[in-house]
């Protein structure tokens, strides 16, 4: 093979992504190929160049000296190809279809949402993406119908039959959809600092006997309400559902009336900077919610793939969960 032949851009892109990840599994996910296909691409590029780009072992992947020296040039080439593609898109008579990203309004203050979208639009200011502030139930329905490309969703993934059987459940979503789990957090109680409960590292169930606790309402779905009710009933708590029974309203109610309140842990309350409330785990409560980037069942468009890749870049520990039928 003549080494003076140009190297295909897809091989250069594969080299850059693997150099950034230093992990074949994560790199393959970013490139939307299998690990064997990625390995074959790297072998093809190394054969074309005539020298190895990576040192591989069963435990680690590392750049060779030649690979490290070539990486800045490869990045420049990939970046330039992206600018070329944008220039072509601007010249085309029909505009590129805009990507629809669904995200409920109550996720606005979630740090992970802010971190992802700010980084994405900083990197791709002209990306054809529209963020729709739909209710999460509407977002999930749009994904299932192919009317949305991606969504940022908060809550618990549930079987499709369960999701369909609970038409008012807002904080569950169908596990049939593929998703990238950005963060997971344990539910607990938001407690006034002056409350005796605040002295516990983990609140014992018995300490809730007769205590009034602000509780979330039925729109959270059985996957969330079931574990919460079981833990609070076990301790003998007296639950109160406030007029605003969503998670933010319940935390606000607890703060206003100086009482413990159920907390899913996503709204920056009870942390070190909070002046008068603390978050505490509750003994026997086994409930974890997640904040995920969720896809539709179809293939990602180029712009949607850029957002998916940015999520992997911002959250390197994110877990990919394939859709379950």
UniProtKB/TrEMBL annotation:
The keyword Cell division does not apply. Keywords: DNA-binding, Transcription, Transcription regulation. The keyword Transcription regulation applies. GO terms for molecular function: DNA binding; DNA-binding transcription factor activity. PROSITE patterns: HTH_LYSR (PS50931). GO terms for cellular component: protein-DNA complex. It holds the Pfam family HTH_1. Belongs to the LysR transcriptional regulatory family. This is HTH lysR-type domain-containing protein. It comes from Phenylobacterium soli.
């Amino acid at each position: 093979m003549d080494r003076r032949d140009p190297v295909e851009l897809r091989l250069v892109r594969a080299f850059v992504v693997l150099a950034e990840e230093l992990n074949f599994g994560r790199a393959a996910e970013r490139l939307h190929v299998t690990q064997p296909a990625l390995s074959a691409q790297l072998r093809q590029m190394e054969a074309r160049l005539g020298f190895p780009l990576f040192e591989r072992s069963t435990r680690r992947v590392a750049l060779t000296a030649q690979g490290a020296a070539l990486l800045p040039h490869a990045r420049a080439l990939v970046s330039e190809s992206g600018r070329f593609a944008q220039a072509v898109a601007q010249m085309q008579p029909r505009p590129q279809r805009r990507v629809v990203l669904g995200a409920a309004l109550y996720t606005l203050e979630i740090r992970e949402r802010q971190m992802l979208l700010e980084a994405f639009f900083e990197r791709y200011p002209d990306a054809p993406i529209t963020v729709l502030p739909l209710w999460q139930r509407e977002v999930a329905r749009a994904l299932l119908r192919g009317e949305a490309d991606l969504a940022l969703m908060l809550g618990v993934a549930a079987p499709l039959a369960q999701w369909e059987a609970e038409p008012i459940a807002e904080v569950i979503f169908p596990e049939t959809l593929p998703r990238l789990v950005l963060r997971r957090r344990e539910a607990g109680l938001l407690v006034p600092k002056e409350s005796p409960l605040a002295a516990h590292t983990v609140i014992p169930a018995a300490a809730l006997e007769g205590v009034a606790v602000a509780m979330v309402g039925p729109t959270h779905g059985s996957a969330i309400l079931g574990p919460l009710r079981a833990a609070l009933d076990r301790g003998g708590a007296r639950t109160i559902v406030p007029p605003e029974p969503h998670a933010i309203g319940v935390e606000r109610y607890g703060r206003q009336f100086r009482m413990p309140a159920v907390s899913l842990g996503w709204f920056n309350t009870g942390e070190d900077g909070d002046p008068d409330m603390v978050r505490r785990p509750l003994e026997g409560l086994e409930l974890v919610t997640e904040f995920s980037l969720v896809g539709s069942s179809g293939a990602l468009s180029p712009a949607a793939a850029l957002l998916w890749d940015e999520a992997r870049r911002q959250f390197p520990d994110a877990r990919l969960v394939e859709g379950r039928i």
